[in-house]
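Protein modeling request. Please complete all fields; requests missing the sequence field cannot be processed.
Requester role: graduate student
Desired output: 3D structure, token encoding
Chains: 1
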Amino acid sequence: MEIGNVEEFLNDYLVYNNALPNCVLDNLYLFYKIAEEVEELLEKYFKNGIKIDTNNFTKVTLEEKIEIVKQYFKDCEIDFNIEKYISDGTIEFVDYNQQNENYDFFDIYNCFRGQMYRENKGAIKLIDVCENGLASDICLLIHEISHFRDEPLNPRNQISNLLTETLAYTETLISADYLNEIGFFIEAQSVLKMEGNILYNIVKKYKKVAKLFLVYMEFGNIERESYQYFFAEEKEENTDYEENVKFLKENFSYDLIYETWHLLGIYLAPYLLNEYKKDKDFMKDIINLHKQINEKDFIDCIKIMKLHDLGKEDRNIILASMHNVLENHFKEKGKKL
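Delivered output (337 residues):
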């Protein structure tokens, strides 16, 4: 298999992103192990995807959604005046008209769609978010507001970029759990299932690309012999060499660092949801993190989450939390998933 252009892509990506120490690339083996462990846990649930049927979703008006979001912020003691940001045009609701027979929850941009972005040379922060007339829209609105709340005046640093998705996905899950508590069971369960679909889809691709990066970073090439030597303890996986090279060759737009932000975000979110459910005062730590991710290093932020270093002990706790969410939030009433 011709690998020259794949090695050129890997080299160019590393040169571009290694001008300074890079928290993702420097810890890539950790993120690879996270992806590996998550895939093992989620495979039996999400291998074929969990279908999301929006036909039974509850229709709610925009005004009703805003009232629910206001009450959510009040109950969580989050200081955010949503009405102010709607009236001044910071938050804009967009009908993406994505409700159709073929809409696929594997693609986050089909319906569950929004963005927090800057204009006027970065001086103005704005939010666009979908308006589908559904209660499930609430979770995405809260996700984008989460990004808005910790967006600094200056560009984000590496830790802020890495952890803003963790907070946004955490508040997606907490708001879904909130919807469940106030009677929107189907919507809450569907949002949680969708996040599981997305995470499983991420880790399947992430492992393919991360393995090639790891080999190239170690040997300066991705020859089959180098690949097999690096993953000698994973003999059953050495057969995926050609598949992984082919995948990357067809996906040179794949951004490993960007995908790591989302991998880590959805990975940590179930753990943080469970910590919140055990003790509602944990929301104070989540609120604090919105500030600290712009000021502290990665380990300091992890410790605020009541973790240590994402070593094996932490990862076992996180996977147990993920399993807890699968068992208690994803199953139909009276049925196992």
